[in-house]
Structures
1.
Amino acid sequence: MKARSHFKGKKVFEHLKEARKKGQKATEESHGIETPGHIIGGADAAKELVTSALLIWVIGNTLGLLQRQIFLLFSLFCFGFLLWKVGRSAVLAWSRIERVNRLIEEEKYEIEHNREEEKAELKEMYVAKGFSGELLNTVVDVLMADDNKLLGVMLEEELGVSLETFDHPLKQALGAGIGVFLAAISLALGVKLFALPGLFIAGFLVIFAASYVIAFIEKIAFVHYIVWNLSITFLAVFGTLFITRFILFEGL
Amino acid sequence: MKKKYTSPYALDEYFASGYEESENPFIKEGSRPWGKHVALLSAVSAAIFLLFAYIAKFYSFNIESFFLVLVYFLAGTPSLIVSLKNLQKLNVNIQVLMTLGALLSVLIGSQLEGGLLLVLFALSEALEESVAKKTKGALNALHKIAPTTAYVINDTDNTVHAKSVREIELDTKILVKAGEIIPLDGLVIEGSSFVNLAHLTGESVPIAKKVGNEVQAGSLNTDGTLTISVTKTSAESTLAKIIQLITEAHEAKPQIQKILDRFGRRYATTVILLAFNFALFLPFIFPSIPFIGNEGSIYRALAFLIAASPCALIIATPTAYLSAISACARKGVLLKGGIVLDALAKCKKLGFDKTGTLTTGKLTCSSVDIDGNTMNLEEGIAIAAGLERAVVHPIAEAVLKYAQEKKINQVAITDMKVIPGHGVEGYVTISENRNYAVIGNVDFILEKISDPSRVKSIINMVKRAGHVVTLLLVNDTVLIFHFLDELRRDVKTVIKDLEKEIEVAMLTGDHVENANYVAKTLGIKEIYSDLKPQDKLRIVNDLAEKYPLVMVGDGINDAPALTRAMVGIAMGEIGSATAINAADIVLLRDDLSTLSWLIKKSKKTISIVKQNLTLSISIIILNALFSILGFIPLWLAVILHEGSTVAVGLNSMRLLRK
């Protein structure tokens, strides 16, 4: 009866698959995805700001707004975006920690109250890893001997939650804030120095640098990652530009 | 039915596919098909957007530009990435030329032509990729089936645990359940089952395996559970040797391809420099030509840059050879690279080893004659069976089988001794008398007979009928055993077909009468008989000096001859690593008719390579010349250039047909 309620009428491997999914969800953002880590968070925020700012600029320009009006609009947007990005990063990171805490408590409860079912899960996991016979029983017994060790194993293996993965929410938020700030300053400087071409040059450089940082930390192929990021911005900005111009001047 | 878990070989399959998204085990199984043909879909989408851009050109500049943004995003980004990676390695190649051409088109206001160039280039790349994937299909399929773990049985407590095949030593006992691929070559020591070699040879008829039979890595155990004693390590297994051979085949480049590769690097840089010079100096040399505009030097230089790019030339040879190699693999023919096809097409003479190649090598005892009266025929057969019991040899097997069929029991032999290369001797008790008995080859036994004339005349008669002879001598009575070496199925038709393509000769260690009989039956005119192994090698040497020679043998006994010939073809039962090492070509299926198909395929490959080279070189010269003279506009230069690339790719794909 106890086993039935623990596995909810499912087979052990199905239960394990579901648990892994639950663990994965707990470590994701509930309102969007943000890679944990303050530097990557900052670089990502910088890229987002550049694309949004360029869109504001090309739409404003096509609408015939004056340069200083567009600059004001851009500055206000950057200010709002900075506040939103900092707050959002912190809240998302705290929510993630809370969800992981809840998972740990649930797993701890299971270990204390449903030992037989936990043992069955552990066995299934190690059978899938290629253990069998006496060796399998020995491994399971050793892991079951210490509740703390067992909790660590179940968190990592069953739920896919690794220890020491996340930055503190405040550090993460600060990273995002700095990313937005630096990107905004670079764009403003570009416009001030070389007008519209300066905006595009600065945008290009910020996306290039931010993509480079992410590719470096995540060990992704540089050229590939940087060119795709620049291409996506090119697509978004110029696609919007031509559609806006068509709507305003030729079409509707 | 939904799978319980992802396949245990999922990661291996992923690596073997070259990190194909459609094989990525980290992606949910249901959404993996989204990763199939992404490059092609992207190129096709870009082509559709280009068409929209062309239509929109007549109505709205902004809509045309919007579609061109999509075209440059879909077709330009991958091209730019590859170009930058090449430039990082200081490699100025065709990809760099194309990307540069497209970007320069935007600068001179010919965005549509630049888009066309990118789209056609992306389409031809996708086509090339699909040819490459198809040609690597055989290799991937083998990697897919090559298990990385085996279930080892522990002798002390009979438990089973998984172990990497790389760490399994000889004589280890492993367990293979129904539905699993046999991970290592071995000998069945327990259980029985049907195994299927379809993955390795394409032959799908299951073969029964029981205790004492050999099984090969890569075979599929279809029903029963087998316990196997490992006889070859993973590095030496049949499957590993086949994978190694196919990998070498993809990497070994024919001479023409090596030359084109070397030439390609210098050529691209030269074209860029020439285009730059044309753009800069044409107006000075010909004052009527301006710098800009559709008649201008920059426009002409750009058209020249695209027209002179050697896309078609570069894919002309590899696509043809790889397609042919792939078709061969699907037909159960493994070859060590396109270079072998080149050599095979040049061969003028084909030498066959008789036993095991033209014939099955399995002897059957057709009849027995007796000369003498110290015993009857049945007693003689019983003694022969008793002597042959201790020997593993096709003749011994045939004698034992004959005795079994005639329901004659073996007689006990004492002091039995095997005389290698000659026969077996021992003592047999007949009517309480101990008698010396010996069975063996003709020369060996005739030496022991006081008056061999009568026996000799019987032997000559038997040999003229194409039979192999073995003699048994007990006291003064001689038994003459007639054996028939069965010809392979349809071999006569095969020889007839082959002779249309190449001269055929037969080499054999058999006596001249038997060789003549077989050659006459098959219609072979050139025969070399009574050859000892060293004689065979000498004849092959002599022939190879006179003609480009292809030698066909079973790959085990003829390894030196196969190595000496220009092209060595091994055929016979799969599982001989020696054959795979010695030969240039291995026929995995026991089917001689593949030979004439293979020779035709090699000639067709050379012919298609020549067609591809002629087409690509002609188009490049004409297109480049007329572009710089201003007769060919940019859009036509792009279409001719990419059209020839696609034509060459499609022409090569004709070789994929089996």
2.
Amino acid sequence: MCQPINVRPAMSWLCAFTWLLCLIRSGLADDNTFKEKAQPFFAQHCQECHKGTKPKGDFHLDRLPPDFDDPENRERWLNVQKRLQTGEMPPKEKPRPPQAEIRALNDWITRQLAAAAARRSAEGRVVLRRLNRVEYENTMRDLLGIDIELKQLLPPDTSSHGFDNVGEALHISSFLLERYLEAADAALNVAIANGLQPPLVKKRYSLKDERIVKVDTERVYRSLDDGLVMFSSSQWNAITVGQFYPSDRGKYRVRILASGVQSSGKPVSFRIDVGPMLMGTVNHLVNYYDVPPDKPTIVEFVDHFEARNHFRISPYGLANAQTVSKVGAEKYDGPGLAVQWVEVEGPLHDRWPPESHRRIFGDLPQAPVPDRNFSKRVEVVSKDPEADAQRILRNFARRAFKRAVTDADIHPVLALVKEKLAVKQSFEQAVRVGLKAILVSPDFLFLREKPGRLDEFALASRLSYFLWSTMPDEELLSLAEKKSLGDPETLRQQVERMLNSPKAKAFTENFVGQWLNLRDIDFTSPDFRLYPEFDELLKTSMVNETHLFFNEVLKNDLSLTSFVASDFTFVNERLAMHYRIPGVEGHAYRKVKLRPESHRGGVLTMASVLKVSANGTNTSPVIRGAYVLDRILGTPPAPPPAGVPVVEPDIRGATTIRQQLAKHRQIASCATCHTKIDPPGFALESFDVIGGWRDYYRSVGNGKEVKIDGRRMPYLQGPKVDPADALANGEKFRNIDELKQLLLKDKDQLARALTEKLLTYATGAVPTAADREEIETIVRKVRDKGYGFRTLVHQVVESGLFRNK
Amino acid sequence: MIINRRHFLRAAGVSLALPLLDKRVFGAPMAPPRRMVCICTPLGLHAPNFFPEKAGREFALTPYLESLREFRNDFTVISGLAHPGIENGHDSMYSFLTAAPHPELRTGFRNTISLDQFAAERIGTETRFPSLALSGEGFSLSWTRSGALVPSHTSPARLFASLFIEGRPDEVQAQNQRLRDGQSILDKVGDQAKSLQAGLGAGDRDKLDEYFTSVRELEQRLAKAEEWSKKPKPKVDAKQPQDIPNPADLLGRTRLMFDLTHLALQTDSTRLITILLSGASLVPPIQGVSMAHHDLSHHGQDPTKLAQLKIVEVETLKVLRDLLAKLKQSKEDGGTVLDRTIVFFGSNLGNGSSHSCRNLPALLAGGGFKHGQHLAFDAKNGPPLSNLFVSMLQKLGIESDKFGSSSGCLTGLA
């Protein structure tokens, strides 16, 4: 920032000229207007409250220089403009400034913003961004052709504007760089084969031979001639197949022959997890499966096992251990899961050395090397080390850098390998050093984009990280090489191809995971006294529902207003029970038509969203209201002013949060924001912390007894829920259904909000005020196509904001 | 004399700790090492059970402080502190040791350097590890000058190995080869700085600059690590701990981290440690506790929850007591390790149930302060927590009169 300084007469005319240029560049030439227009306005209408050491809303007018290049200061000006435009400031009880004055100030701010944006666009809106750890892991997976978790080697990423792929928030440190070196080692050790092919093992086991069954004192398992019946769904009665204990990592095929017994003609369900199965370690869910009654059926899956991993079979929805134990499994007549046998085959390798190895070294031969710990160690050898190294590195760099490479790109890495060869490191070790150098170079770790229109390779990467969260595949790279990716029709076809690919799962998981915050699904666990019905399957099902719903809207180009209200959703039996939708059996998810009285449809009334917008104990209309404003309406509320006491939650059943908040809204400075934040939150009070419908709060202190199917619940019936309220503009609603209809009134705003989120995620930088016009163009085009969401994705990709840095 | 020699080493890019003996050879009186441990319990502490009512030296021990009775004259409890500009929510954890305002904003937050890293830049050059960030979660409390998270050590077993266990000769050799390879890689990558930075806008240049600064710093660190690898690691009586895989086991995991903290300080392997305790949404295996820790912190005034929360928090304080005891029992050069170690225990939340970030719980032990009092500030208008940080920095011998949002040092603390 240039400040007007004393220009001594002795200064050369050149200096003076430079100084003048500086003034123009930084927008200070308009300083006069600032002094003439803005400052008197502020002095007359604003300063009374916003000056001194403790200004209202913690907003310091005396700390608001006319500097529009500084992002934070710019945001402050945007805030001023927004409040002027909406008429929110000065507050209602103060005299209104003349319209002409408001307009003049508003126009001045707009001009400054546009000028600052023009200065920025010369550099590009999107700052150089590094891969986040999800993108890093995916990229390493696709680059090397391996299956390995690298994420946990890297520190968590920080996010900005709600997304962890925003360049400005992604920093690098020596610590992170050190982890990249370690991760590269770990990945190369898996990709490169230094041994003989691990032997293929195929074995069939009986659960009767498991230790946990042999020492069963609870009497929850029944032995059959040809298998074992599990009757208990209690966690500790699940069976980890200890007989299978692979010594080599890789893909394994598992087949389980099982059926339901005594299940009154209904299927019986179970889940499979794979992992180390040590207490508290992280295992991963493979899936939930149903098997039909009395007819042994094979369930088969292929999954990646690390060495010494196990798999575990947990029956779902059966009785607990106590119930079975009382009569003993021999006499127990409730439903059970019969498992005849389990069979495991693997590790499955199509060829050896594996594809990942060949991708780097091609067909170069391997030869034994002495190793004190590993007697059969082999390494790649070469008769012409320098030529082979050059070819290997060039090949690798092209894909790692995601662009055509030149000799100059390879030169430093090759020099490094030669140095290592010169000090008598082996060929493979020297090449590994070169590969590592590529894997920590900025060309690999960053998405390099030059100012202006993106070149073909940068476009391929931006597209690929947007829709796949990973590097471009061969088709994208070769289109970029031919310089034809940028052609609008080709680009359109590629977006279609990419959205139809299984890799687009990453878009759903990462975009939805952050847009709707589903990544926080495990952040709190519901209080089991208040929510005894909550279980793992319900949690899994709710997240799957949202993903499936998003995919459906995307696949069929349905209106983006479906995210607010829809007449369909996806459920399985467990979720249907939660939503009180009759007639859904089994674990398969299916699209169901919603009746109006279901109060469901759209994402806001999905259990997943309702869970992440609450904690495990209580809901807050403020938190949920802010969620709706930020994520759906695109009008995030300002943070609460400093020093305001927070409402202290109370679940003893005497007062409702609504009564507590009512006091809040009586204070004028709180009301400004809370008349906007609270209403959607009040409507959502009809849903509890796990997204179940409620007419009454649940309480642990005061209230009536609650009985379901004759069983007394551990919670009591608290006060009645009152979901009715009015929006800030006075429009009243009685419940969530009416609120949804009100939200649907301004479809353009819903489109605008989602466009901004998508653009942020797609480009790694938030759109600014200067990009408003382009966003409006996108909104207009999408409106013409019935607000189709797939259309929106295409429009985002076609937009100048996506095609330029 | 000492200064000159160390300056020489630093200029040569190899600034190593001079073992205590070396320093004596030069004959100059040696300043005792100054150390700091910062601990954060991320779900807060229930204030009525923690803060005494009365200020000054005559305060009555509260249910939580009761656990620390034998250390009454070794700690100061401070009420009324808060970070200005840091309002409600768990995101306040990111700024606990940095004081960077508005981490709760979803827009454009950039963190600043944390207290330990700030200190490490000044006093972290003498030990095998400039600083250590331990964590029961993925995040750590430590942030670099550029606002990047310092990765945490989450496996006490692995950290123990790198602190105290000499590898087999072939492992040491392989590790040294990796360190040398790493240095040559960084050297080559660093060479490209100029060519890559040409023709970029200011934002991109900053980013690349951050990258190349990291390259240089890591190169130096690997060089130091290679030098250190030639020196024998300190010997300790303790056995390598086994990691506790159960993430719900708050106390067990905390104890492992605290035990390692004691060993690392006692052997002068590092002088700066940050520890983020876990705040899991899981039921900790503690007698009398049946609900998840995070869930308990959102007690909503429910007496059952408050009772269980109290059990969890009292037990946590008892683990802290054991750390203080170990530090006090370890004697060195006529004092105790505790005398030279500032132990700061606190939380980013003043009230876990409402997510308030006012009136943060803060307990300061050891480090050469005059203890045995309750420093009470006005909860509505107390001084910035950073004032305490400035006082801590000064006690470390760092001449700094400003950190984060400080307005001075903390009055009443000597």
3.
Amino acid sequence: MRRYCLSIISLLVLAGCANVEPWQRGYLAKPEMAFDPNPATAIQMQHMYASKEAAAGGYGVGGGGCGCN
Amino acid sequence: MRSALHALAAAAATLPLASLPVRAGQIEEAKVGLNLFSYQERDGRIGVLSPTAWVQAPVGRDIDLEARMTFDSVAGASPQYVSNDGGTIIHALSSASIREWRKEGALKATRWFGDDSLSLGANVSSEHDYLSQTLSADGKFEFLNKNVTWAVGASVTGDAVGFTGFPTIHEKRTTRALFTGITQLLSPTDILQSNLAYTNGRGYFDDYYEYTVSFLGRRAFLHRDQRPDSRRSLAWLTRWKHYVPALGAALGLDYRYYHDSWGIRSHMAEASWHQPLSTDWAVRPVIRYYTQSTASFYNTTVASSSGVSSSDTRLAAFGAVTLALNFSARFGDRDTVEMGTGRYVQRASWRSGGGSPDLPRFDAAYAMLGWTRSF
């Protein structure tokens, strides 16, 4: 657990090093830069993987359980 | 000159660009969507047809609502038992084809406080022998001129497990989850997200429909799937997106490390390339590699009819590869159509260092079609 906390703290430190001004965010705002271009499809893919693999999670909270796993 | 530059910078900061959804932000327009997901395993195993309808809309100035309904139709043969009859390990499927339906509904309400938000969500998934209910809450907070978003959330899931043919058996499981993550703008073309998710489940984890039959000398043992009554897991997911201005394309790289109290260690790496083909069409190939070690109680041969042991292949050691190709097309200002197809393959030998011996090959294919309308 300690190394995960250190990783998060490292990211926070990293956060202080970068500063992207609002007018520099044109590329970042493009739809293709979304982590999940289609959230409904992403949920279905995660559901498929969770029914065939032991590992799951990391994408957020709120997903429900299922008898398939 | 410097004050003029500062004035220009301050004015630019107020442009609409500043509030563009660099990360998931406040919903600016209502959307409805329909998705159809089709999944088929090879060799006559499970097939799923799964339509989804969803809507997201702003309600007033500061509240967003999201709702989703999914209906799964499942048919085919499922794994039933593992035996060493005849000297080799056999993974046998159920002789009769199963027919199942699953209904899932999800609702989420988000209240915005400037750039920060708090959300409450509920999720219900229902099958004839399984009911899962989840309540969740999460918050997103902006820092450092919106260069950093911190997300934190928690959920609790209650599962009620029943068994076809055994109407008097009812089991329960409760899973509590904690989540935190940071999304960081690294440069005008790079964005990084790193999330930690912890779950703590207690209750019934067995798969009552699966069992192991072992012949040792003149003795035979029949062992029903039995697992520990608790499971704690930690998943660490890191995602990076990089925009390539010269090509107008975006590269995505994801990596997840996972481990749990059952002894399973897993790595997942995924790469995607989002390439616009014209002003309206885009293609997105995806490649994903996944590997996991075995659960500490995974056994394909048992020397007892009781105790914690499972021969479920999902607890075995293997590697898996997904290859997928997705297309999206815009029609006018309001409609978007997405379609995609992919293949998912598991092999024991694809795990670095070797997987579980005697694990059967597993192949599946899927296709999806989606339509979204904005208002």
4.
Amino acid sequence: MKSLRELTHYPSALMGLAIILALVVLSIYALASMPYSEAVRLWRGGEDVWYDRPKNAAPTWTNLFREQKLPTTITMDSRDESIEKDIEVGAGDMTNIHMSFEFDYPYHGFPREISIFFNAEFERKQPHVSITWLTPDGREIRIADKSVGVRESYRISQDSTLQRRLGGGVAPHQGLFAVDPKADDLVSLQGTYTLRIEAVVFEPEADLDAEVVIYGQVHGIAGTDHRRRELSVALLWGTPIALAFGLLAAVGTTMTTMIIAGVGTWFGGWVDALIQRVTEVNLILPMLPILIMIGTFYSRSIWLMLGVLILLSIFGGAIKIYRAIFIQVKESPYIEAAQAYGAGNFRLIFRYLIPRIIPTLIPNLVTLVPTFVFIEAALALLGLGDPVLPTWGKIISDAYNFGALYHGFYYWVLEPSALLMLTALAFSLLGFSLDRIFNPRLRGM
Amino acid sequence: MSDTALVGASEGVGLEKTRSLFETLSRVAKYTLVRLVFLFLTVVVGVYLVVIVANMGGYVDEIRRGNIHQMISLEISQDESPEMRALSTEAKQALIRERVAIEVKRQGLDRPFIVRSFDFLRQALTLNLGFASDMVSDTGSKQVKLILLERLPPTLLLWGAANVTLFFASLFFGLFLSRKYGSWLDRFVVAMAPTSSAPAWFYGLFLILVFAALLQILPFGGMVAAPPPESKILYALSVLKHLILPTSAIVISSVFLQTFNFRTFFLIYSSEDYVEMAKAKGLSDREIERRYVLRPVLPTIITQFALLLIAVWMGATILETVFNWPGLGRTLFRAIGLFDTSVIVGSQVIFAYLLAGTVFLLDIIYALVDPRVRIGAEGRTR
């Protein structure tokens, strides 16, 4: 307890503790706001879940550092109150539906894509739509006339007919927002745009709704990846996973190492010799390659990896350090006293020997955490991450495989890296300070 | 300085010296031999473990036996020849059993996996690594040994360059800091030491981001420019240019902690009484450093460095993958992607040998600098 109070004298320890606390709060928030199954569903979801998110969009807050703001995603649904939708019953069974999507575009640059998702209700005959685009400077551009199915997505950006009509050279989502689509140097036009949909349905009960998505270049608090997924899901859920993995591995390893070292030293003889030899063998076993093989041949489950990792780290270098301390302690008079009153072997090990190495053990344990967190990330980077869980390492892995650095999507690598670095620094700052508190020899240095 | 005073006794001393030198050498030789045997045993255990894991503890044999049975049953059931049709179902079953037994024996699957695993072990240890299923060496061979040996030089180049730089940089920097104890530079290094908790590949990503993507002055990865330059000098320069980032990544990831450790050792050892004594005798600072500080601290430093080196070897796979360095690590990564078991096992074997080699080399250096090993015999007789 006294030593814990001493921690307050070390600013670096306090900083470390503050970061760890923040990470724990973030983890709790993650667990509370998004259940495990939901996180997995979102992270494994494809276009069906993420259809209205742009691909590879930087986080929105990057606009704060930009003179010319990049567009964010604009989503408009005709089922919303704010969107004008008039239904006009015409001759026969025909009904005319007018939809008018009006939106502000104060941004510089162009959106990534534009898509319209139709949702039609009809028995046999498909509704017919004609789509027009009104620019702030009063131009009216015909986008398309077409029939739509029950669920149809119309990707304006990929419409080559429209592209030709706009002048050929530029993609539709650029041409529609340009001051002059035929100019060599494309400049976007700011102001209020309107997308108008005139639909005709041919049955009395039929109806049509549309969702217009103008994909931005920036999106959300963490941006999106190549599969349109919001990175915030994995960043958020990666926190409890990283902490759990690091802490469990560190605690599991140190505790077992401690007990083995204690048992070995206490019984001595062949037990001790065997443990020593196993340690030396284990020290030069290639741990990461063995993990890689397990991941390749058996299973990539993060918890199996955790188990193997602990198994491989039990006989680590720390055994030698603990043993050195135990050998000294074993000769102390209080041990002899305990033996004299008849304490058994295991009572002696657990109640008399082991408590003596806690001061060495705690800093060790804390500094071990980042090592394991990074091993998880490393495995993910090698494509051996857990197949279902969203983790920081998997974001880096995706980014790396997609050539994020090459394409300039720096946020994709920097966000998970920042969290990894923060975790690592927090634990090692704390560990360093603890080391000084518990090892007086280092205190002045 | 005592030499001049003992001129008369110099002959006797000379003889004594030769004898003690001989004793030292024989001790070192014995020590080396013991270490060598032990390291070899370690490699054997390690490789055996790899064999077990790669064969899924014998499960692969089951699969192969199942495959043989299926293949032969299919062959016989599809055989439309008159002799075969004449056979009864029982006779056919007997025939299948017989043929399966022959094939199982031919492939050596009739012996229990335990026995076979020792065969695999022997083959692996003698680098008789078999053939790859998908991967091909640059020379077009499918021999795993050739594929891997071809990848060894780049790996040795990168890790050699990085570790030599790291060791000497942190040694001299640590020594320098221990002299400037408490200066702002010293405090800076102490504050930076926790950054070493992130591995080299992690810093590699940042280095690529800054120097390759943003500044565009160094390449993203690889070992030489494509196409490789014709002249030898240009080729070497190109390799050097590609070497900068990965080497820096390794150095940056460890240099602060290593410097901090070395500096702390120097400080601990320079507060010993005999150092004070030497100061009182009026020896120069350099002399004290060389004889009383550096000397005793060296074994500790080497142990520390050996552990670091081992840890760093383990990271080879990821760092080489991140930098597209055509070494063993990346080959392992590619082999995993292709499920090329023989290459995976083969690269493990090479890694095991490399690790053991590193440890052995350090052991010899250790034996040369550690007085307990070097003059242990004299200490005992006295």
